[in-house]
Structures are given as structure tokens and as C-alpha cells.
Write a structure and sequence with these properties.
The protein is an alpha/beta fold. Helix 8 runs parallel beside helix 9 and helix 11 packs antiparallel against helix 12. 29% of the residues are buried.
Amino acid sequence: ELVEEAMREKLAPVAFLDLVLTRQLERKDERRVATMLKLSGLPPGKTLEGFDWSFQPRVERRQIETLATCSYVREKVNVLFLGPPGVGKSHLATALGVKAIKNGFSVAHFVLDELMHVLKADAAIPPARLRAKRYLNAGLLVVDEVGIRPLDRAEANLFFRLVSARYEKGAIILTSNKHVRDWPEIFAGEEIITTAILDRLLHHVEVALIDGRRYRLMAAMGVRNIANYNRKVKDAEEAGELREALRLADWVSVKVDTVDEATWQRLNRPAAQLRLETVLDGIRILADGFPGRLV
């Protein structure tokens, strides 16, 4: 194949040798990336190229693209993705892990429950013998779903030992559905341990706050992007199906500033006309999910 290309392009011997070496390096790097992705434990199929920026406009794209250069990994800076479930935190954390591997860094990915299982198994091992463990020697450690369940005191201490061991030695990406002010309830209510963990995590950190539309709920409704979402709401309202229009809006916990104003105007009807208590049939409207003018 390369010979045919060289003949077609009439390459000089030196240029042909350069082409051969370049292709060899490319294929070697492709094999390296494929192997490192398998070893990392990163979920497949989540890349920055596959992230729907139009669906999640509350994500600060410039910040994520800067992180994609992997300078934070080189500088041992941590990254916190904070926000409610389903807004894309895990996707972005995984995508940054993929970028790190492509840039030559080793990566280890764990859901917090998986990580705690591993840390418990290694609890009796002296710190000096833990250096070969992936969660310590990887250039980037990605820990997903921090805060889904509270840890007990022993688990909190193990997590502190991990964060302390990686402090200024390796970058960590954490995703959490809880703001850092609520982290004591994650770590067994132990404020001292929580403070020690946050002291090390936040010393060098990039924080990405995401509070917008929820992917999984949209997918459950068969909505693939925000244009389709707005169209579904409009179609339901125009057909007189106010129950459906309100259900669509409530299911994704839409904030006033995350949907176009025209959509809200179409739903802006007098409370007496909507008869919300009857129409909603028990569907809970989140206190911060609907604009006050609807209720």
C-alpha cells in the first residue's frame, strides 16, 4: 500500500522512508491508545467529539476545551464536576480521560463503589507497597459518582488516605451530585476528615459546575436534542395537551433560563385555566424547576 502510494506520488527515497516511519509511529500510537483505554476502565463511547454542546449550554465549553489540552494532568491539578444527576458530568470526565490517554498519560477510572471495594482489599497493605496500584500510579485518576451514597467512617478514612497519597503527585477528576459544602454528609458526617480531604483536593483545582438539562430523562422521552425538546413541548401545547406539555417540562427539571423564552410564553396561562392541581395528577413540580408565573 505504501509502495503504491509512493509510486503514485513519485516520492523520493528519503520521502518514502519518512512516510514509512510516520505510518509505523501512527500505528504504534493507535495500538498504545487502544491498550491504555482497555486498561484504564474508562466507559467506551464517551468523547468530547460526541458531547452535545447545544443540549447542555450551561457547560462552559472554553473551560472544557482548555482541560482537553491536559495541562492540568501535567501540573497535578484536580478537576471537580459538580451538578445534579444526568447533566453530563460522567461523560465529560470520561472524555477528558480519553484525551489524557491520547496525550500519553496513564489513566485509571473507578466508580466510587468499585474504588472503595479495591481500597478495602488493600487496607492492610503498607503505603510503601501501594505505589504499584493503578489508583496511585496513574497520571490521572477518575472517580465517578461521589455522593451517590454516604461512606462509613472506615471508608472515609480510606478515601482520605488515597487523596493524601496522590496530593501534588497525580491529578484526580471527581464527579459529584453534591456541592462541596454538603460533603460532610458523604464522609460519615466527619467534618475533620472532610476538611482534610477538601484541603488537599481544592489546593490545586478546576471546578466545573453543571446545572442544566438531564440527558437520561430526555432520552427516556425519546428527545435527542433541545430543538426536538422545544418542538415536543410546542406540539403538545398547540394540540391542547397541557398535561403533556407540563409533563415534558417537569421531567427534565427545566430552569427558566435553560429553555427559550417563546416556549415558556406558550405555557404561560392563568392558574385557574390550567387547574394545575388537577392537570398534573400528582406530577411533582420541583420548587426551582418551574418559573413562578406558572403556579
